[in-house]
Prior knowledge:
Helix content: over 70%
Amino acid sequence: MDIYILVIISILFGALVRTVFGFGEALVTMPILALLGIDLKLAIALVGIIGVLVAMPKFITNYKVVNWNIVKRLLIGSIIGTPLGIVLILFIDENIVLNILGSLLVLYGAINLLGIQLMTKYNIKDMFDYVAGLFSGVLGAAYNSHGVPIVVYGTLKKWDIVKLKQISQVHFFIVGLVVITNHAVTGFWTMEMFYIIIVTLPFLIIIIKLGDVIAEKIEQQILIKYVYLLLIIFGILMIVK
């Protein structure tokens, strides 16, 4: 099978995960592209652009109804966290960081799937939005994983799944624009990348529609459990990576 077909399939699978759950395309797609032997810069550029394209319809739909006060605080934190993420990958062993993060995700997802209540007696103050944004910026810059900290934080804040997806998609779209601009300036964009994007785009539109249909068919209480399960899976992927 042509390698480009496998690349496109992996991209579309990641896009489907992102559309249904509101996060996770990088953690799904990047390991597959690595196994296929795709150049790291090309893989990063592809995931960045696809992420923005997937988030764009949700941004257009939700920008009038999303809580912009929350989004602004998350964005400020992300701006501060981005250079810290670059420092992280330069000076700290990647395996140590990924093992710690992966273990925490597995633990957090398992606790919630088992129904153990966390922080039920406390209301998390809005000032911690900046902290969640900070971690999003750090992990986004270091490991292309902007969405995971926002999802974990949103579940701690007890946001319903609709609010969680609105905030994460709007936040990611704006952060994603900054990221892909940086990719373009630093030479990550190539003609090969544009070829893959152009071929993928018609199928991506179908996948986004399919993801929306799947998400609508799943009850909110069930969908949030799938989110916790996905966090466990992504945690395991981080550990074995």
